[in-house]
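Entry type: protein chain
Record version: 2
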Amino acid sequence: MSIQTQSIEYKDGDTVLAAHMAWDDAVAGPRPGVLVSHAWAGRSDFEDRKAERLAELGYVGFALDLYGQGVTGHSPEENATLMQPFLDDRALLQRRMRLSLEQLSAQKEVDSDRTAAIGFCFGGLCVLDLARTGANVRGVVSFHGLLGAPGNTAGTKVTSKVLVLHGWRDPLAPPEQVLAFADEMVSHDADWQLQVYGNCMHAFTNPEAESPENGVQYDPTADHRSWDSMWVFLNEVLG
């Protein structure tokens, strides 16, 4: 096994975006590709490492970029400022997700008929929106993601299988929002699953999340369990 990485530049209008792609060059021929959608701070080492771990599993990992090349936040205030335009304009978010999927699918290492997407926190919302638009992606996985519906996808057929991995004590997606999400998925006639980790807060996969007073806390057990659940799910949807 030899994991290779490459920066992939692409554009949305005048905005240059830069993804981090990883693959195992010991694998012959095209193989399934998996988008990795970043949290509110922008693409970071966290997402890049997830792409490389996916490559170790035999996929092409593609840590996408929604904000622009080199654009990252370094405080909660900066992160919120970067994220808010995408929450306000979900069509913009959805367009950049679809552009990222197109770039992944266009790579020679990728079997474009077998793609999936995973996302963390804000990135969880992003991959759910990708599915909500009816994109040609076999499955999406949200890790402690935001769950609110975008308001522009009612009546759309969700063809992607959906897995939501959620901390029950997450203040950013409280129980009433979880139930509303379930109703939404039923309205889309989606193939969806929800796994809840009872004592977990937001950002349970991020070792740097240490703010329980704000409902943000790493949980190594949930981190391990959720990755294993993702692996089983990807085996199912990507074959």
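Comment: Strands lie at 3-12, 15-24, 31-37, 60-63, 110-120, 139-143, 161-167, 192-197, 210-211, 216-217.
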